[in-house]
C-alpha cells in the first residue's frame, strides 16, 4: 500500500509549515497520532486528520498561512482546524501539551523529507506504538489501534525494546499485546 498522492501533497505543504515554524521558534513541530501511524506504515492505516504538536499558537498560525493553509471554522474539519485548498479533504489540527506529556524522548524523533525544502518530523516508532496501545486501552479495546501498534511493531527495525516497554506502560498500554514482558 502507498500513501495517496493528495496525502503526500498535504504532507509536503505541512513540511513547509514545519520549516517556517522551526525558523520562527527554534523548536520543531511534530506530527503525532493517526497520521504518524499512516506515514510509518506507508498508508496501511489512513487518517484524514493530521495532529501536530506545536506549542506556539501565533508562530503556528503564521507558518500554516505561509504554506497556504486556511483556517477552517466549519464543523466538518473541527474547531480550529486547518486545510489546504488544493487538498480540502484533509485537516490539520494543532494539539497542545508537551511531547507525550513530557515522557517521550523528543531526541528520538524522525525527520522525513517529503520533497525538497519540506521535512516532516515524526515521533520515534516506539512512541507511536506506545501511543496506539495506550489509545487501545483508553477506548476500551478499539481493535484498529491495536492493529496499528502491531503493524508498527512488525515493520520497525532496531527497536529499543527497553524504551518501548517503558513508554507502553507510561501510556497505560499492555506490552503483552505485542508479546513483550513488563521487565
Shape: globular
**Percent of residues in helical segments?**
40-55%
Query: What's the CATH architecture of the largest domain?
Result: 2-Layer Sandwich
Radius of gyration: 16 Å
Count of DSSP strands:
7
**What is the straight-line distance between the termini?**
35 Å
Tally the helices: what do you get? 6
The strand line-up of the biggest sheet is 1-2-5-4-3
What integer is the average pLDDT? 90
- Top-tier CATH class of the largest domain: Alpha Beta
Overall number of domains: 2
Low-confidence stretches: none
Percentage of residues in DSSP E strands: 15-25%
For the largest beta-sheet, the strand count, sense and barrel status come to:
5 strands, mixed
Structural class: alpha+beta
Note the run of SSEs as H and E. HEHEHEEEEEHHH
CATH topology of the largest domain: Beta Polymerase, domain 2
Amino acid at each position: 500500500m502507498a500513501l495517496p498522492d493528495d496525502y503526500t501533497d498535504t504532507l509536503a505543504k505541512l513540511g513547509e509549515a514545519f520549516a517556517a515554524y522551526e525558523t520562527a521558534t527554534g523548536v520543531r513541530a511534530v506530527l503525532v497520532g493517526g497520521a504518524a501511524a499512516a506515514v510509518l506504515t506507508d498508508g496501511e492505516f489512513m487518517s484524514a486528520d493530521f495532529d501536530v504538536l506545536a506549542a506556539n499558537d501565533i508562530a503556528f498560525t503564521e507558518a500554516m498561512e505561509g504554506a497556504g493553509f486556511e483556517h477552517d471554522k466549519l464543523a466538518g474539519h473541527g474547531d480550529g482546524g486547518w486545510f489546504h485548498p488544493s487538498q480540502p479533504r484533509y485537516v490539520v489540527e494543532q494539539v497542545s501539551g508537551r511531547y507525550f506529556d513530557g515522557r517521550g524522548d523528543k531526541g528520538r524523533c524522525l525527520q522525513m523529507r517529503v520533497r525538497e525544502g519540506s521535512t516532516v518530523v515524526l515521533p520515534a516508532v516506539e512512541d507511536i506504538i506506545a501511543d496506539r496501545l495506550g489509545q487501545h486501552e483508553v477506548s476500551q479495546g478499539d481493535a484498529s489501534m491495536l492493529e496499528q501498534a502491531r503493524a508498527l511493531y512488525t515493520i520497525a527495525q532496531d527497536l529499543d525494546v527497553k524504551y518501548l516497554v517503558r513508554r507502553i506502560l507510561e501510556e497505560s498500554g499492555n506490552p503483552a499485546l505485542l508479546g513483550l514482558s513488563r521487565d
